[in-house]
Amino acid sequence: MSPKEETRLTGIGVSSGIVIGKVYLIDRAKVTYSLNSVGKSGITPEIKRFRRAIEHSKKQLTEVSDKIRGDHFDEFKHIIDAHFLILQDRMIVDDTEKIIRDDQVNAEWALKIQHEKISQFFKELDDEYLSERMADVDYVVERIMRNLVGKRQESITGITEDVIVVAHDLSPADTAQIDRKVIKGFVTDIGGRTSHTAIMARSLEIPSVVGLETVSAMVKNGDCIIVNGTTGQVIINPSSEVRIEYEELLKRYQDEERELLSITELAAVTTDGYRMSLMANIEMPHEIKSIKEHGAEGIGLYRTEFIYLNRKSLPTEDEHFEVYKYVVENMKPKVTIIRTFDLGGDRFLSPIDLAQEMNPAMGLRAIRFCLKEVDIFKDQLRAILRASAYGPVKIMFPMISGIEEIRLTKMILEEAKDDLIGRGVPFDENIEIGTMMEVPSAMIIADLLAKEVDFFSIGTNDLIQYSLAIDRVNEHVNYLYEPLHPAVLRMIGGVVHAAHERGIKVGMCGEMAGEPLYLPILVGIGLDELSMNAMSILRVKKILREISYKDCRTITDEILTFATAREIDRYVFLELRDRFPTIFSNNNITH
Ligand code: PEP
Ligand code: MG
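A: This is the predicted complex of the input protein with phosphoenolpyruvate.
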């Protein structure tokens, strides 16, 4: 179906920016096949045919992998490797062959039955991260199936004109082949913020929206489509007025981007001298190039859990070390704040066998997991310490909820230091440590925690989840996710006060930190540092350089008397719209 009339959809914007273009639909219509009884004599030829399809699939993946080689997206390689592992997995190969043998059926049917079994198994696990990994299994099965049936693999290589790719989902192998010169954006029916596709979209820095549910069924090749990766809005076949409106918006966005680059080297300071460090969040080392181009003053949050994903065995201390050393050496003399891994919750990993939990966000995740699996934790700590010999590093611990936890963590860190001293390996003996402030109990005892660490960094993504009791990955309660909730703001204010009383710095590294609308409050409340995705840094800096601390204090004092997030939002928006009419208009793409 392709609507002639303008149709608007809203999904999850995972990579910011606007693009207007022509649809290139990846038709993932499933291959068709039916049940054939092959009889006893047909078993061996059928198994041979199945094995040929597997070998052919491996060959295709090798070809994809070769295309990636030389590119700087190392992580794509990991994903292709994961697909290779699935292609060799007993559940795919041996179990399908067993069905061919036992039921004397054709390979397609046996694979279909086995695929359904695996799918059921994943469903019963009821885990968001794992269900996203099921998508990898689906891609691999689809590939084998196409090779069995002899269908051409749908691919996004060989596109010669500018397009916006629309697909039910894009496999990591697809995203690995995205040529940014012609593919200007993409949108998909499914996916969430932790999906590989979303992660890749951000690293490619092309506007993308996922989770649109039905978009691939609503377009045909050549349709006009507008993608706003900042707001998550997608417009199919826009009217000429809307198209013109977006063309103007896009032009303004591009002009703004260009203009913003001119302030890269300028200080992040208000008109009356309030200095705020603007740092970057990274997940993959290759992002360093972009964060430098956007003037990051350092890395305020390096999420290290990605080192553990898409692999069958745990990373060794040396593997960790090589990655951290690369990051630290490339960032120096600027600081890198490495957060120890936060696995569990919605971020599941393959080599560690975490128990299935009723409530994983509040279960054995982050520091709790580390304090239980001390050896795994120490491998990472020793690697971070070793990297500190190559440039300025700080360590940050996620999900600290009380004093005993941080004391125990510090003891383990000391043991890791002793190991290195025993081995004669150099590291920064005065390395600073900090806690993420993302659990309400920690926020409330910030005065006590401040005596234990050198800095705080407020993780608003989890803080809001826990304080307002809203599952951050559940779209049904998304409307309650309010960073400006008075409870959240009061807690932030309390933590800043406690930190400054003790003379330690306090930053913010949750998504809230990169939202220009919130900046006056974050300044007024007295934060020392904000850490955000690369694309937000200059937008935030521009506003920072044009407001005064005094005005921010006035705004903050005022909004702290308000009872609802909505009132606060409205008030700050109007204040900013009056001062920055081009940035904050009613349908502006910046917020
Ligand atoms: C947070 O919780 O705000 C945060 C920065 O950490 P993560 O999003 O990785 O949980
Ligand atoms: Mg967190």
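Residues 587-591 have pLDDT under 50 and may be disordered. The chain has 22 helices and 16 strands.
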